[in-house]
Each structure stands twice: as structure tokens, then as C-alpha cells.
Amino acid sequence: GAGVSQSPSNKVTEKGKDVELRCDPISGHTALYWYRQSLGQGLEFLIYFQGNSAPDKSGLPSDRFSAERTGGSVSTLTIQRTQQEDSAVYLCASSPIPGSHTDTQYFGPGTRLTVL
Amino acid sequence: KQEVTQIPAALSVPEGENLVLNCSFTDSAIYNLQWFRQDPGKGLTSLLLIQSSQREQTSGRLNASLDKSSGRSTLYIAASQPGDSATYLCAVRQGTNAGKSTFGDGTTLTVKP
């Protein structure tokens, strides 16, 4: 595809419900990242995938958060039993082969999650 | 733990002025540093990537420098235009973990016509 795509663009949910956020990286990019940006805050790293494995999950804030990646492509970030503090913009990025001199992160437009 | 600071938090300049945005980081063992632009309600657009072995990168009116020993990077914007108005973020990727990037809080730039 032309760029990183994310769906849905907006999600409003009630406290306690589960949500799934999807990321389609640029074709051929082996690395995929999830970040979140809360109102007035900087970007916070959540998880990094290399292929289908996640060597760094250190940013996931609690065990309510999980992510998977299948076929070295699409990734899904799942938040269970959502809380109001989960409200944020969730950004996905992908990059070509890590360690290459062109290892630039390309970001999607984000999913704005609002938990009522 | 890497910490990234951007100063100033906000900057307003008249059109045509040259300006410098600053980024500092606490751990100099970095893999690369990337400057991004974020427009309101949008994702991030990559501007420049500097590898740890490089001193600077240029693209059009933008020039980014890197001084690892002092933990600093600057983004120089020449002949600013109203279309440059956005939030500028710097992101540092550690040398021991090619995945994770640590972001600064950004500098919000307004260029007045």
C-alpha cells in the first residue's frame, strides 16, 4: 500500500468494554510499532514487532493491553475492560529492515479512542 | 532511562525568519535520531533521519544536526513559511534496542504571514 493505514479512525466505547485497533503497515516493512499519544502528552511507546514476534513489550501499561501480528503484516492492538485513562490517539508505525541506513519510521494517521 | 527534552515548547515567528528548534537527550548511546512534523489531528510525517555516525542531514529548507557527545540535536528551518506551522517532534532510538524510540514533547511552531 501507499502508506500505513489504521482502522477505525475514531472509536467511542463505554468503560469496561473491549476494543480492537488495527494497523496495516507498508508492504514489505518488517518492523511495526505501536505508540499512544494522550491529550497534551508526548508519544508513549507501547510495543515493537519484528516480523510476528514482539522483542519489546515494555511499554504496555497493564495486562489489559495485548497485541499480535500475523503473517508479518497486519497487527491488532486489543484493550480489554477499557478505562477512561485509556482515552488517547493510538499510532502505528512501520519501518524497513531495522539496522539499515534507511530505517525510518512511517506513521499511520492514528485511531482516536474515547472511553466514556 | 532515556529522556528527551525539546525547547522551546512553543515558538511564534513572522514569515521569512530563520529559526532553530532544540532537542536534548540524556543517554548518548543512540542508534539514530529522527525529526517529525505533526499537523493537528494528523499522524507524524518524517522530516529527517540522522544516523549515530552522522553529524547532519539536509532536506530543502531543513537542516538537522547531531552532537552525540553533548546529547543535542537542532532542526534549522530557513525562510519559514506559514505552511511550516505544526508541532515538531524529535525521537531518539537507542543503540541497544533498534525498535523503541523515545519522543520529546515537541515544539509547536506558528509562522505568521
Provide the descriptors you would attach to this structure in a database record.
heterodimer; A: 116 residues; mainly beta; 7-stranded mixed beta sheet; 4-stranded antiparallel beta sheet; B: 113 residues; 6-stranded mixed beta sheet; 5-stranded antiparallel beta sheet; 11 strands; 0% helix
What would you note in describing this structure?
The complex is a heterodimer of chains A (116) and B (113). By secondary structure, chain A is an all-beta fold. Chain A has no helices and eleven strands. Chain A has strands spanning 5-7, 10-13, 19-24, 31-37, 43-50, 53-56, 65-69, 75-79, 88-95, 106-107, 111-115. In chain A, strands 2, 4, 5, 6, 9, 10 and 11 form a seven-stranded mixed sheet that branches. In chain A, strands 1-3-8-7 form a four-stranded antiparallel sheet, with no helix packed on it. Chain A starts with a strand and ends with a strand. Chain B has 113 residues and is an all-beta fold. Chain B is built from no helices and eleven strands. Chain B has strands at 4-7, 10-14, 19-25, 30-38, 44-51, 56-59, 62-67, 72-77, 86-94, 101-103, 107-112. In chain B, strands 2, 4, 5, 9, 10 and 11 form a six-stranded mixed sheet that branches. A five-stranded antiparallel sheet of chain B has the order 1-3-8-7-6, with no helix packed on it. In chain B, a hairpin with a 2-residue loop joins strand 6 (56-59) and strand 7 (62-67). Chain B is globular and about 40 Å long. The model of chain B has no long low-confidence stretch (mean pLDDT 92). Chains A and B meet through strand 4, strand 5 and strand 10 of A and strand 4, strand 5 and strand 10 of B.
Layout of SSEs?
The complex is a heterodimer of chains A (116) and B (113).
Chain A: E1 5-7, E2 10-13, E3 19-24, E4 31-37, E5 43-50, E6 53-56, E7 65-69, E8 75-79, E9 88-95, E10 106-107, E11 111-115
Parallel strand pairs in A: 2-11
Antiparallel strand pairs in A: 1-3, 3-8, 4-5, 4-9, 5-6, 7-8, 9-10, 9-11
Chain B: E1 4-7, E2 10-14, E3 19-25, E4 30-38, E5 44-51, E6 56-59, E7 62-67, E8 72-77, E9 86-94, E10 101-103, E11 107-112
Parallel strand pairs in B: 2-11
Antiparallel strand pairs in B: 1-3, 3-8, 4-5, 4-9, 6-7, 7-8, 9-10, 9-11
